[in-house]
Design a protein that fits this description.
Number of strands: 19
Distance between the termini: 65 Å
Largest sheet: 8 strands, mixed
C-alpha cells in the first residue's frame, strides 16, 4: 500500500465537483454518524471507538452501499469493484485518489469517519489508515506511512476540546496543531477566517481533505511549530489540541511535543497572549507535571501570561507508571520484545525521575485576554462528569469573574440574584433527625457542581428569584432564625460570592 493521499482542491472546479459528488454519495448511502449507529447498533458502534472491529465486521456482511462504505473507509477491507460502484462514483474516487485499485478489488487510501456537527451537520473526518478510531495503536496492518508522521482522526481529546470551545462569532480563529482539521471544521461555522497550523505537512494535507469533503470551504493552512507560522497576527479565538504527551524524546509527531517535560504546553500558554485580540479566548488541552516539593496549582498559575484571566481544570491524574504504560501501548511498544519494552519503559521512568515528576495531570486551560491588572485565575480539580457542550458555560464563568471583580460587599448586598436553572437541594442526615447534618446544592447542567451550604445559604439561594436585593433577603432570614441582621450581613458576602463564582446564583438587573 502506498502513502499516497487523495487530492481535493476547492480552487480547482473539476476537483471541487468530484468532491461534491463523493459527498452526495456518502449522504445517499447514509454514511453519517446517525446512519452508522443505526447500522451497527450501540454495542458494535462503541466497540469500533475502542478499535475493536469484530462486531462491526459481523454487522457489515451484506451488500448495501452503507455496509460497503463501512468496510472500505472504517475497517480498511477491500471490496469488489461492483460493490464499490453501487456505493460511490468510482471514477471520481480513483481520479482524486480516495480509492486504489488492485485488480477487481478497491481499497481506501485514507480513513473517512462520519462525524456529527453541533447543529446536526453531516461531516467526515479524514485521517491516516488505521487512525480514525482508537489512536495510532488501533487497527493494524494497513498502510506504510512513517509512524512518526501519522495523522489521527476523531478521539476523546478532540471531541472534548470541541465541546468546551466558546462558539461566539469571531472575525479570525486559529487552530494551532490542526491535525486532521476537526477544530478548524468547527471554527469555520462561526469564524469569518480560519487559520490552521501544523508542524507535520501531511496533517495540513489531511485537514484540507476534511474541510473539502465536509463542504466547509477552505482554511489558511500553514506549516510550522507553535506560533511561528502566524508571525505577529492576532485572533479572537485560538484552539489547540497540541502534542502534549510528556515523553523521553519526540518519536511521534502527533503526540510528542519535542520539548522537555511540560514545556510545550507552558510555552503555548505563555505565548498566546501576544496573539489574542482584547476579549479573545485561547483554549487548549494540556498535560502538566506534578513535581515533588511543588504544588501543581502554583505551577499552572505561573504559566498564565500578564493581562489574561484563566480557568484551568484538572480532569485526571495518573502516576508515572500508569502514564508511561498508557503511551507505550499507544505507540505499540507493548508488542515489542520483552527486553525492548523494558528498555523503553525504563527510559520513561528515567525521564520522570530526573525531573522529580511524581504524577501527570490532564485537563483544560482557557485564557481570556481581559487586560485586567487584577486577573482572575481559577485552578481547580474536577474529575466528575460534566454536560457537554460547555462553551457557553465558559463564557458565563468569565462573566461572573468580571462581576465579582467589580462588585464590593456593599454592592453585592444591594444586588439581585436568581437561582440558576436546574439546581436542586439535597439534605443529608440521619432518618428522623430534626435538622440535616448538611445541605448540598447540586447543578444538573454544565459543570454539574455540588457544594455544601449551611441553612442560611440554602434558605438564601432558595428565595433568590431576582425580585429582592440580597441584603433584604438576609434581613428576613435573620428575623426567622433569631440572628443579629448586622452580623449576618457581615458574614454572608463570602458565601454569596462562592455561590455566584460557581454558577449557583446569577446576578440580574433589579427589574429582573
Amino acid at each position: 500500500m502506498s502513502t499516497h493521499l487523495p487530492t481535493a482542491d476547492v480552487q480547482d472546479p473539476e476537483s471541487n465537483t468530484r468532491t461534491a459528488r463523493l459527498r452526495e454519495a456518502l449522504l445517499a448511502a447514509d454514511f453519517t454518524a446517525d446512519g452508522l449507529l443505526d447500522l451497527l447498533g450501540a454495542p458494535a458502534y462503541a466497540a469500533l471507538a475502542r478499535s475493536e472491529t469484530v462486531p462491526a465486521v459481523r454487522a457489515t456482511r451484506g451488500d448495501s452501499p452503507l455496509e460497503t462504505l463501512v468496510r472500505l473507509f472504517l475497517l480498511q477491507r477491500p471490496v469488489e469493484l461492483r460493490q464499490a460502484q453501487a456505493a460511490l462514483p468510482v471514477a471520481d474516487c480513483l481520479a482524486d485518489g480516495w480509492l486504489v485499485r488492485d485488480g477487481d478489488e478497491l481499497r481506501a487510501s485514507v480513513d473517512v469517519r462520519p462525524y456529527g456537527g453541533p447543529e446536526g451537520q453531516d461531516w467526515w473526518i479524514v485521517s491516516d489508515l488505521g487512525c480514525a478510531v482508537g489512536g495510532a495503536g488501533g487497527i493494524r496492518g494497513v498502510g506504510e506511512t512513517d509512524r512518526s508522521q501519522l495523522v489521527l482522526g476523531v478521539g476523546g481529546a478532540s471531541t472534548t476540546l470541541a465541546g468546551i470551545t466558546v462558539r461566539r462569532p469571531a472575525a479570525k480563529a486559529l487552530d494551532l496543531g490542526t491535525g486532521s482539521g476537526i477544530q478548524a471544521l468547527h471554527a469555520a461555522q462561526h469564524a469569518t477566517r480560519v487559520t490552521g497550523t501544523d508542524l507535520n505537512p501531511r496533517a495540513l494535507r489531511i485537514a484540507a481533505l476534511t474541510l473539502a469533503l465536509s463542504g466547509a470551504g477552505t482554511a489558511d493552512l500553514r506549516e510550522g511549530s507553535l506560533f511561528e507560522p502566524v508571525g505577529d497576527e492576532t485572533y479572537d479565538l485560538i484552539v489547540s489540541n497540541p502534542p502534549f504527551v510528556i515523553s523521553p524524546g519526540a518519536r511521534l509527531t502527533y503526540r510528542d511535543g519535542g520539548m522537555g517535560g511540560d514545556d510545550l504546553c507552558r510555552t503555548l500558554v505563555q505565548q498566546s497572549a501576544a496573539h489574542l485580540n482584547d476579549g479573545g479566548y485561547c483554549q487548549l488541552l494540556a498535560n502538566w507535571q506534578h513535581v515533588a516539593g511543588e504544588e501543581w496549582q502554583d505551577r499552572l498559575r505561573s504559566w498564565v501570561p500578564r493581562g489574561c484571566d484563566a480557568w484551568i481544570v484538572q480532569r485526571e491524574v495518573q502516576d508515572v507508571t500508569q502514564y508511561a504504560e498508557l503511551w507505550l501501548r499507544d505507540a505499540g511498544d507493548h508488542r515489542a520484545g520483552d527486553e525492548e519494552y523494558a528498555a523503553r519503559y525504563g527510559a520513561w521512568l528515567d525521564e520522570f525521575e530526573a525531573r522529580k515528576t511524581k504524577a501527570i495531570g490532564f485537563g483544560w486551560i482557557t485564557l481570556r485576554k481581559s487586560g485586567s491588572d487584577s486577573p482572575s485565575i481559577t485552578v481547580e480539580e474536577w474529575p466528575h462528569p460534566v454536560e457537554q457542550p460547555l462553551g457557553e458555560s465558559v463564557v458565563r464563568h468569565f462573566d461572573r469573574q468580571d462581576y465579582l471583580r467589580a462588585t464590593d460587599d456593599a454592592a453585592l448586598l444591594a444586588g439581585h440574584f436568581r437561582l440558576a436553572d436546574e439546581v436542586v437541594q439535597e439534605q443529608v442526615g440521619l432518618p428522623g433527625a430534626e435538622d440535616p447534618e448538611h445541605v448540598v446544592l447540586r447543578q444538573n447542567r454544565g459543570m454539574r457542581r455540588a457544594t455544601k451550604v449551611d441553612t442560611v445559604g440554602a434558605g438564601f439561594a432558595g428565595v433568590c428569584d431576582g425580585s429582592l436585593p440580597a441584603g433584604r433577603i438576609l434581613d428576613a432570614i435573620a428575623q426567622l432564625v433569631g440572628e443579629d441582621p448586622v452580623l449576618l450581613r457581615d458574614r454572608t458576602p463570602a458565601s454569596i460570592r462562592m455561590l455566584v463564582e460557581q454558577g449557583f446564583l446569577e446576578p440580574v438587573a433589579a427589574d429582573g
